[in-house]
Write a structure and sequence with these properties.
Layout lengths: L6 H7 L19 H8 L2 E3 L5 E4 L5 E7 L5 E7 L2 E8 L2 E3 L9 E16 L7 E15 L6 E9 L2 E8 L7 E7 L2 E3 L5 E4 L13 E4 L5 E2 L3 E4 L5 E7 L7 E7 L2 E6 L8 E4 L2 E2 L2 E7 L2 H5 L3 H4 L15 E6 L1 H4 L15 H14 L3 E4 L28 H10 L3 E7 L4 H18 L3 E5 L7 E4 L5 E4 L4 H16 L3 E5 L25 H4 L8 H4 L34 H10 L4 E3 L4 H5 L2 H9 L4 E10 L3 E8 L5 E7 L4 E6 L9 E8 L12 E8 L4 E6 L4 E8 L2
Parallel strand pairs: 23-24, 23-30, 24-25, 25-26, 26-29
Antiparallel strand pairs: 1-7, 2-3, 3-4, 4-5, 6-11, 7-8, 8-9, 9-10, 10-21, 10-22, 11-20, 12-19, 13-14, 13-16, 15-18, 16-17, 17-22, 18-19, 27-28, 31-32, 32-33, 33-38, 34-37, 35-36, 35-38
């Protein structure tokens, strides 16, 4: 039994990289000794111009070299076609010579890994990590002496590469002012993207445009090439570094524009350091992107040890009522977070087997314009009509946990001063989950230095990257899971810190309450191929009162009821909210039954079909169970989808309970037309289902025996 250790290569350069740690249940699979030697021995390769590394299936080829001026660069070919043209590599520093030109390749090391590891929770229990690795060492050809390495890992579904900078003279402390990494892409691509470095963070409607319409874009950004090949650009293992946006400096050439500190520096660090992985998913079609674990595989294993206390769950909460103005966050006659109201939600959760109840607005600070009230929030003092001890005792007696809430309004100094006391309070009360919030315009995150001077940062700059991770680590010490809203984008760190269950970072359900415009019908058909490639999203699905301001109001949910059910399968999250008011579920118990039944943790997940912005079909198997769930959603177009059931056990019959759009369903004129039917099916069957305009279907498949 063996695991290929990345620390072996790290030792060559004296880099401070933690060795691979085995998670609570991690499996490695043995190979014959000869094959082991072939795959996992370290080979020193004499550099001779360009060097390359191929994916295990040989379809992806990454080439690394230097140009005539000694500038490092790379390119990517897929199935013999160039998909990333010659693109720059390098770094610029504030006070030292850059890693941009005058370099040569002095050493190349190769490695290969083929292993499986187990997630404590996730879209699939067992994850295959199969990749070939190249470590390319660069040294300057003149003075001053400079050196760095580029580590490249190539999987069958894409690649990741990162910079590794060892200790060296003159580079003890460094301020990175620019990262030169480029992605030079084919000009004929169609892009699916949201704008980067804008006030509303990641909460934008995705655009479908030619490349020429993009200035700066957040990642993941997905491209469709004319031959059907799909590429998606993102990053993995973002730790103590700035996130980047894709900046189109020249036509078809995107640079990694690192998010700056308020003083203009991008990253403040010391050697040795490593950058996050720059990732490129590569697939012959759209569905292949969905079935990839590339980002997770580029993260370090579980660092928390025993995480049996981490519990995926469904939850309800005092939340949607504030968005539709049934309640208020602030105190007063419509205050939502009262002891009595919370107990009603606890009763509802207990009746239907839900694990948690979220309560927003329980703590001092919500009165007035709380968007700008970050200095006033207390995270331990309650409003008079909310008894947190009584509520948590009542929840515990009913087998439910309170999901605590910390809204910071972007004031980090105020929150961090209280963080220990606030988390200690939750720990003492048995609160095992927390939702944090950072409502502030991008660029308005506030911290105050020792002189009392306020500074304002971006949500995705290095300052906040460190803060979000601090919150996760401090919560883990108290066995509390974390769900941040207005977060840093997911880069797979849930593998390393499994208490980081989910996050927002998406234009979610609340925009249907007050957004101008609400989320359009194609929204849920783009998210799986873009935002969801980074990781779970707390989209908060399950609205049953779709026209809460009346059918003529523009403020409505632009889907059918069946599509709201399908979202529980299509939009993955291990912490999944039934977002509507309890009375709206009680009015439709037959439809609500699917939300009661559908799991949030999976043995395996398979994307069956789909095209970006048109439709998507997912199948998922309950972790530790034999039942399967299928979700299908479409955009504004009505369509017929064929769903092959060949993922089922071929030796069993299944009872399929189907929640589908009725024959007259239409999201605008008849969104509630829902048909619930049962039939017996086998793995040999194919279901043909009509999806209405902005419609969907949700299917439960249970072994008949």
């Amino acid at each position: 039994m063996f695991v290929a250790e990345e620390s072996t290569l790290a030792g060559v350069f004296g880099l401070a990289i933690a060795p691979q740690q085995h998670p609570r249940a991690m499996y490695s699979y043995s190979f014959p000794v000869a094959l082991f030697v072939l795959l996992c021995s370290m080979l020193a390769v004499s550099p001779a111009g360009a060097v390359e590394v191929r994916s295990p299936d040989t379809r992806i080829v990454v080439t690394v070299d230097v140009d005539d001026g000694g500038a490092p660069r790379y390119r990517v070919d897929y199935r013999g076609e160039n998909v990333i043209r010659d693109s720059k590599l390098g770094l610029h520093f504030a006070s030292q010579h850059g890693f941009d030109s005058g370099f040569e390749i002095v050493e190349v090391l190769e490695n290969a890994v083929d292993q499986r590891w187990e997630q404590p929770w996730g879209q699939r229990r067992l994850v295959t990590d199969r990749h070939n690795e190249l470590l390319v060492r660069f040294e300057s050809t003149g003075k001053p002496a400079r050196r760095f390495a580029l580590r490249v890992r190539v999987f069958d579904d894409g690649l990741g590469f990162r910079y590794e900078v060892p200790r060296q003279r003159g580079y003890s402390a460094v301020d990175i002012v620019d990262e030169l990494t480029e992605f030079h892409v084919p000009s004929e691509a169609t892009a699916f993207w949201i704008p980067g470095r804008r006030f509303n963070r990641y909460e934008y409607i995705y655009r479908t445009t030619p490349l020429e319409d993009i200035a700066m874009a957040h990642t993941p950004m997905t491209l469709r090439l004319p031959d059907g090949v799909h590429l998606s650009f993102h990053e993995a293992a973002l730790v103590d570094y700035a996130a980047y946006v894709l900046d189109q400096r020249r036509p078809n050439v995107f640079e990694t524009n690192l998010t700056p500190w308020s003083d203009g520096v991008r990253v403040k660090t010391r050697t040795p350091f490593v950058s996050p992985w720059r990732t490129i998913q590569v697939s012959p079609d759209a569905v292949g992107l969905l079935n990839s674990d590339l980002v997770l595989n580029l993260n370090e294993p579980n660092a928390l040890g025993d995480v049996s206390w981490v519990e995926p769950m469904k939850y309800v909460g005092i939340w949607w009522g504030m968005h539709i103005r049934t309640y208020t966050w602030s105190s007063g006659p419509l205050h939502g977070a009262t002891t009595a109201e919370t107990k009603k939600y606890i009763d509802f959760a207990a009746r239907h087997g839900f694990g948690g109840v979220l309560v927003e607005g329980w703590n001092i600070g919500w009165d007035g314009d709380w968007f700008f009230n970050g200095d006033l929030f207390s995270f331990t003092e309650t409003y008079p009509d909310f008894d947190i001890v009584e509520v948590t005792d009542y929840a515990r007696d009913n087998g439910v946990t309170l999901i605590g809430h910390h809204e910071t309004s972007g004031n980090i100094t105020n929150y961090e001063k209280q963080m220990d006391d606030a988390l200690d309070l939750y720990e003492s009360l048995g609160v095992r989950a927390i939702k944090t919030g950072y409502v502030a315009d991008a660029g308005d995150i506030k911290w105050v230095d020792r002189r009392g001077v306020a500074h304002y940062e971006w949500h995705d700059g290095q300052f906040m990257v460190d803060h979000y991770l601090k919150s996760v680590r401090e919560s883990a010490k108290r066995q509390i899971t974390v769900n941040p809203h207005e977060p840093i984008k997911d880069t797979g760190l849930r593998r390393t810190y499994p208490n980081w269950l989910t996050r927002e970072g998406v234009r979610g359900q609340e925009f249907n309450a007050w957004g101008d415009p609400p989320n359009p019908p194609e929204h849920l058909t783009i998210l799986p191929f873009t935002r969801m490639l980074s990781g779970p999203a707390d989209y908060t699905p399950g609205i049953f009162n779709l026209t809460f301001q009346g059918p003529e109001s523009k403020q409505r949910v632009q889907t059918t009821l069946a599509k709201q059910l399908a979202a529980y399968v299509v939009l993955y999250s291990p912490l999944q909210m039934a977002a509507d008011l309890p009375e709206n579920y009680e009015a439709r118990p037959d439809a609500f039954q699917f939300i009661v039944d559908v799991p949030v943790d999976w043995e395996q997940s398979i994307a069956l079909d789909g095209e970006v912005g048109d439709f998507v079909v997912w199948a998922r198997q309950r972790r530790g169970g034999d039942d399967w769930y299928v979700g299908a959603v479409t955009d504004e177009e009505e369509r017929q989808v064929g769903i092959s059931l060949d993922f089922l056990d071929p030796d069993r019959d299944y009872t399929a309970t189907i929640y589908r759009d009725g024959d007259e369903a239409d999201w605008q004129s008849n969104p509630y037309d829902l048909v619930i039917e049962q039939r017996t099916v086998t793995a040999a069957d194919t279901m043909s289902l009509r999806l209405a305009t902005s419609g969907g279907a949700a299917i439960q498949l249970v072994p008949a025996d």
